[in-house]
């Protein structure tokens, strides 16, 4: 939502803004799917994500997959 408003106002988000938003999505919402979409949008715009944040997306994704695997084994 914040990025959408920025773009509507003619402002392009920078690497730090994307980085903070992606970190927040991963750490607070555990929403790696949206984080991956933002990563693609960022890269399409010619920006590069910090390696630690890229690793965070992968870690949250792996955590969810592990939880889903455990849940299916318990069922």
UniProtKB/TrEMBL annotation:
PROSITE patterns reported in the protein's UniProt record: PPR (PS51375)
PPR repeat start and end residues: 14-49
InterPro entries the record matches: PPR_rpt, TPR-like_helical_dom_sf
Domain of life: Eukaryota
Keyword Repeat among UniProt keywords: yes
Gene3D superfamilies, sorted: Tetratricopeptide repeat domain
Keywords of the record: Repeat, Transit peptide
Protein name according to UniProt: Os01g0897500 protein
Species assigned in the record: Oryza sativa subsp. japonica (Rice)
